[in-house]
Amino acid sequence: MNQKYIIDTDIGDDVDDAFAVMLAAKSPMDLIGITTVFRNAKQRAQMAQYLLRLIGKENIPVYAGIDKPLLQRIEYLLPPEMIEEEMKKGYYTLPQYMPEMERENIRETDAVDYIIEMAKTYGKQLTLVPIGPFTNIAMAIRKAPEIMSRIKEIRIIGGNYAEAKPEWNIACDPESAQIVFTSGIPIVAIGIDTTMRCPLSDEQLDKLHNLGSGSATLICNMIEKWTAHYSYVRPVMHDPLAVACCMDESIVTFKEMHVKVELYGEKRWCTVPCETPSLETGTFKVAVDVRPDDFFTIFDTYIFDDK
User: Fold this and answer.
1) What is the pTM of this model?
2) Hey, what domains does the chain have and what are their CATH numbers?
3) β 187-190/281-290 pair status
4) How far is it, in rounded angstroms, from Cα 12 to Cα 8?
5) d(CA 41, CA 243)
6) How far apart are alpha carbons 272 and 73 in whole angstroms?
7) pLDDT, tens digit, 9 for 90 and up, residues 43-82
8) Quick one: pLDDT at residue 1?
9) Distance between CA atoms of 132 and 135, rounded to whole angstroms?
């Protein structure tokens, strides 16, 4: 049975989302669509569509989703000076957004409705790969709860399972994360405690600059904008690890855990493993180790293929 994949992404903030889209689009995975989420989902969709066009996969449809978290307020996530700088135009403009992306026409269907439609169409052939906040998927579950028994699984990047520290995808919309975690849909989760072991090397960055393809040049430009905006030094391949695991799960070691998303108090935003299951926990496979060399074998094979 040919497995179908939808990537749900907040492409345009951390640059690893662009690498994940590129990896999935250039690999043998049957990527049937991309949905975007969180703060200006339309620009994110145009960015994803533009990247796909440069890869030669413009036939993969892109759908914009929900901009705002269920309850979480963005001013609690970012320092005031960064929010002020980002909102000078009166709305959030992605740091990596470029004028040429404005010409991209995205699908009119809402991302939530698209996810529901594909779940009903493909059932157990469908795997969702959310690599951003979980608002779109949570709303799809709320709008059409019957899809929970139809989807094969959800493979997420999100959480920290080694210590009680916030992680971005959870922190942006913890209520949505809790809806997804307790949905009963089989989940495979990779947290930041695992993904941080997969940074790009200087050699890989040099090789990317030397590729010369349109998509590689775009991502190099996105890296420069990402570095300037956030003052980060080296991209870490958080999101591509989830994509690579769709191709070969053996690159990561998993352990079954009961996990709760804390919604109150000083641990709000944290994913907390629990000893016993409850109505507030989800029980699923959580990454506890990764073999970076094996991951980068897959990554290099498709990212540095200049076709």
Assistant:
1) 0.96
2) 4-303 (3.90.245.10)
3) parallel
4) 13
5) 21
6) 22
7) 999 999 999 999 999 999 999 999 999 999 988 888 888 8
8) 61
9) 9
